[in-house]
Hints:
It is a single chain. By secondary structure, the protein is of the alpha/beta class. It has helices spanning 8-13, 34-43, 46-50, 53-66, 80-87, 106-111, 117-120, 122-135, 148-157, 165-173, 175-199, 216-233, 256-260, 275-282, 301-315, 335-349, and strands at 72-73, 89-92, 96-99, 141-146, 203-208, 237-238, 241-242, 245-249, 266-268, 287-292, 321-325. α2 runs antiparallel to α4. It is globular, with a radius of gyration of 19 Å.
Amino acid sequence: MTALKNDRFLRALLKQPVDVTPVWMMRQAGRYLPEYRASRAKAGDFMSLCMNPELACEVTLQPLDRYPLDAAILFSDILTVPDAMGLGLYFETGEGPRFKKVVSTAADIEALPVPDPEKDLGYVMDAVRTIRRELNGRVPLIGFSGSPWTLATYMVEGGSSKDFRKSKAMLYSDPQAMHALLDKLAASVTCYLNGQIRAGAQAVQIFDSWGGSLSAAAYQEFSLAYMRKIVDGLIREHDGRRVPVILFTKGGGLWLESMAEAGAEALGLDWTCDIGSARARVGDKVALQGNMDPSVLYARPVAIRAEVGRILAAYGQGTGHVFNLGHGITPEVDPAHAGAFIEAVHELSARYHQG
Length: 355
């Protein structure tokens, strides 16, 4: 494999010295970029874009051609795993993702297969291989998956939900069934991420988008326990390098101490959590990723720069910080504002990495 020209993202995750704080953005390949919208129009729809390795590669690289980002993230969707389990993913205009089949009984859960990454999700593995080849060592490639709890909510609800009524009803009234579903999803996600690592992903992130909707006790039992299980089963060395794992629970700021014990190299923070306090709470156990409110990117560049400076100062001196937004970049953001954000991170962070 080609040697990395810029490895500061991987170095920061491993708390090794860096020259400046590395930066990437969740959803950096997305609708805020006119070139992405053109590629999506060419593909016809979102899933056709995901399932075409050449186009998935094209959109993965678009933000890197525009900005000096320190990592690429595979262009895909968290719901590829339940789709490969036979639930029939489709997208309803204005409604978001939907499934043709829902999971509501123990028999439904028993019938679900654990997908083979090369056979059932081969288009994702092909995209990873294509992106790695085309990156040619520019920056590392991040692979990802949804967490078992997050995937389970979509499978039980049949799509997006505001209150997770059906998922939480199953969790409390039939915890055995929910555990069976989460166990199968943990096995599926472990296989899927290991497939991405074998295909060339150099770090992986587990997106626990809906873990923050749970009570403290339910989060430990039904979300974090299964992410820990995945971390325990992942390939951690590949191509002669450590493969760092990032856990990101949106709304998970209350549980950072227990998340830091899960075995991942880094925790993602949303914007509701102070990064300086988070660093004090987790100590040297993990690196931290985040955590600017994506809405700051609607402000003028001078305000964006000020907020970047505030977050860098809150984290303080030394390595172990990957700058990111606290959630995905939104479609209405001016691409020039994203550029101002990235430039500010690199420029203002140098002083925190001297000596």
